Amino acid sequence: MRFRLAALALLALAGLARADDAVLRVGDQRGNARALMEAAGVLADLPYRLDWSEFPAAAPLLEALNAGAIDAGGVGDAPFTFAAAAGVPVKAYLAFRNRQDGLAILVAKDSPIRTVADLKGKSIATNRGSIGHQVVLAALEEAGLPASAVTLRFLPPADAKIALASGSVDAWATWEPYTSTAELAGLARVVRDGNGITPGLSFAVASDAALTTKRAQLADFGRRLVAARDWALKDPAPYAAVWSKLIGLPEAVPLRWFARAQYRAVPIDEAVIADEQRNIDLYVRSGLIPQARAPKAAAILDRSFEPGAAAVR
Known about the structure:
Blueprint: H1 2-20, E1 23-29, H2 32-40, E2 49-55, H3 58-66, E3 72-76, H4 77-85, E4 90-97, E5 104-108, E6 123-126, H5 131-142, E7 151-154, H6 157-166, E8 171-174, H7 178-184, E9 188-193, E10 201-207, H8 208-213, H9 215-234, H10 237-247, H11 252-261, E11 264-266, H12 270-285, H13 297-300
Parallel strand pairs: 1-2, 1-3, 6-7, 6-8
Antiparallel strand pairs: 3-10, 4-10, 4-11, 5-8, 5-9
């Protein structure tokens, strides 16, 4: 009997060890969540191992999630919508809102383009399915122009920046930190930002598999991420200092970005669902998502995590 009890105890200890050795693989964009959470000091005493992977944009992050290389990550509403429509097994489990000053259509400082209407017949570089793509479509609709009024060149941010600087495109639709970097360097100016025409949503997303098998880790990570966002909202300077060292850009870039973005966690409520549905409808109207493949917003937003504590209900 003593041998059996000892064996059971060893099995229990082995189970705890396996739980402690659990890994949450998180995709990050340009040091965003990682720098934030390290600066806020919320990553101490993790009951699991956290493996970070760095991506230049949301599209490759979501491709990695689709391939099973990562479990979760942070993305904007536009690439999340495209991924869900393409059949990627992903859902958003936390939502954040922010001002959209840094989501913008940029032109060269000396460009004659002053309004969205001036973009008619011009070329715009952006990532396909990105929030940059989203702001172009929304700005064209606002100006009463069809999506076909411009020529889109789908380029990653580094190539798009070069294309604008060389004059091979007329405009660049991008997001942070690229917008602040270009503005502070005197390389570009904003023709239209996303305020008033895009909802300013971003999400913490996870694969369907991770939402099933790693709910405890996702809930804990989400709680820490929300706490870090709340901390940075009060004073972005410490976050900017850590981000600057991690990414290698001047502190002025993240300070400009964070101060005007004002990221904050929000519940996945009816307002968030309605805004996400408007994103889906925009892409259907633009012909980018076939109606037959368009998801329903409520089906791709997981409301079982509380944003304040990220606890599973």
